[in-house]
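Record DUF4338 domain-containing protein, 676 aa.
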Amino acid sequence: MTNAPDTSWTTLEPALPSKVSRDAFVEHTRALAKVRRDERADEVLDKVRAEFVAEVKASRRADRQALLAAGLVVCDLATQGWLIRVRGERVEIRPPEPVADRAAEKARIRRQELVKRNAQLRQSSVQRFLDSMERQRLHNGAYVSIYSLMRDGRELAEGLREARTHLNNGWADVLSNLVEPYLQFVTEEAATCAYTGLRLMDVWRYFRHTWTNQHTSVPGRTMLFLVRDRAAANHPVMGIGALSSPIMQIRERDSWIGWHPDTFLERVRREPTRNLAKWLVDTLDAAIDEIYVADLLEDKVLSTRDLTAPSDDALDRLFNEGAEQRRLHHRYARTRDLKRRRADLSGDEYWVAQARTHLFRSKRALALATFLRARAVLNEAFQGKPTAAKLAALAATGYGSDAIRRVLKKAKADRVGIAVADISVCGAVQPYNALLGGKLTAMLAASPEVVHQYRRRYAGAESEIASSVAGRPIVRASKLVLLGTTSLYGVGSSQYNRIKIPANRLGGADKDVIRYEELGRSEAFGTSHYSEETVDALVDLVQQSDAQRVNSIFGEGASPKLRKVRQALELLSLPAGMLLNHHRPRIVYAVSLIRNLADYLIGLARQPDYIIPADAAASTAAIGAWWRERWLRHRITSDQALEEVARHTRVHPVTHGARVPHQRASTQQPMFTEHS
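=>
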C-alpha cells in the first residue's frame, strides 16, 4: 500500500534557460532550507542572501536577472516563515501554518513586518534623517530636538495616579488639565513646529518610523496630521494619522455600502423606483458628455449620430481603436514624456494633449464603446420614459443587468476618490499608547475638523484621470463621507474595536453615533512580504523581457507595482497567485460620516446628510472629552497601565518608546539630564 502524495507542498521550477542557473537556484534554496529557526535565523538568512546576490551579479550568464529574481523570492519566503525543502533536485515550498494562539499569531506577524521595517532603518539616508532629528539645536533660546516632543512618562503617570483620587468627584477637570488633545495638520512642506522649529512633516515621519511596519508612500491624495497635547510643555505628540486615496476594490466594504454590483442589483430588483431608473439615464448621459470625442469624430472612428443611436459597427470600431491605442501606449509611452508635457502646456491645452495620448485615447474609446452600448440598452428599455416597472423588467434580463453594472461602476469611480478615504496611518505615540491613545487618534480621524480640512485641502483639485478623459478640467467636490481602514493583525482585538462617538456630544441628534464597523477580513494578497530589493529585481526582469510593459503612469490602472510583480512571477513560471498571498488577512473597518451613504456615493442623493455637522464648533475638544470619559478615566485605574506609562523616560539610560530603535555609537549623549 502506497501513501497518498503530500499536496501541501508546491514545487518551484523557475524558467531558467541554463542548467548552470537551475543548479545555482537549487543550491541556493538548499542553503536556505538548512537555516535553523532560532534567534539567529534572520542573521544567517541575510548572510545566505548576500552571498547569493554577490555571486549572481558577478556572473555573466544571460539569464542572471531571472536567477537573481527567483533566488530573492525564495529568500523572502524563508524570511517570512515559509517552509522550504529540497528533495533531490526539486525545490518545494509551503506557506506558514496559521497560529491558533492569538498572541503567538500577532508575534508572528510582528516579526514578519519588522524584517522590512528594520531593513529600512538600516538605510544610510534614514540613519542620517534620524540623527538630524535627535541632534540638539537652539530654538527660541532653548536647546531642543525631537525628544522635546516626547512626554516624560514618569511625570504623566504621577499626575494620573493623583487623578485616581478624584474619580468620584471632579475627575473631568483633573484629567483635562493633564491631557488635552488637539489636531495639527501637515498642510505645507515648510510648515514648522512652534516649539522646536522642526518641520512638521519631519516630526510626523520620525514617529512613523517607530511603527512595527515599514514606512512607505501612498500614491494619490494624502493628508497627514498630528495629535498633540496642549496640557504639557512643548505640546508633545500623542499620535499620528494619515488619510490616503482608498483602495478601489474591497468586497467587504463595497457590499456594506451597497455599491457592490451584486448588492446593488439586489436592491434594484427588490425596490425598483422611478428615481433609480432616471438616475441610470442621467448618470450615463453625464458619463458620455465627459468624454473628449473631437479626434474620434475627426478620424471617423464614429459619427455624431452614433453618440445618440450607436450602431454595432461604431461599437466595433471603438473597441478596436481602444485595443490598438493600448498597444501603441505600451510600445511608446514613457513617464518622463508625460511630465515634460505638463511643464510645457497649461489649462485646457494640457488636458486636450493628455486626452490625445495613446493611453487616454484608448481609455476614451473603450469607455465610450461601453457607455454607448449601455445607452442602446436603456434607450430600448425606457423608450424615453424611465419608470419603476421598466426598470424592474430591465433588471430581470442579463443584458439589462450588465448595463446597470456599467453605470454603477462609473458612478462609483466618480465618488470613490473624492468622498472616500483610507486611514492609512493611525496610532498613538508612547507614552500615550498605554492609555489607549490609538483609540483617540482613530476617533479624531473621523472628526468634523478632519472633514473640513479635507474639503479645504482639495477644493478646486482637478481630477487627473477624469480631466484627461474629458479633455478639460474636471473638478469634483471633495466632501468626505466614508473612512475605511484595516487592522495590522487579522486576529484578536485592535484599536478600532468598540469605538463609537455619540453624535449629541458634538451637536448631532441623540440617536446617532459615529461608529467603526467591523466588516470582515480582507483577502491576504499583495507584495508587502517582499523586500524592495526583490521587487526591484522582479521589475527589472519584466523591463528586460519582451513582455507587455507596465509604465507606472498614473491612469494605467490600479497598483502598477503589484501588476509588475505578478507579471515577473509569471515570466519565471512561478505560481503568482500563491506567491502573492502573504497569509496575513486583516480586519476591514468602515466609518460612515453621513446618514444617506449608499445614495450619496452613487450620486442618487445630491448632498451628504452629515451625522455631525461638518462645521461643528470645538468638535475636536468634544471628542477629546469623550475619550477621557469613555477610555482614559477607566484606564488609569490599572496599576499595570500606569507602570507602562512611567517606563517611557527621557533621561539616561533612555527607555522612551517614542524613540526610533536604531543602532547608535556607545558615545551617544543622553536626551536630557536628570534635571532637565
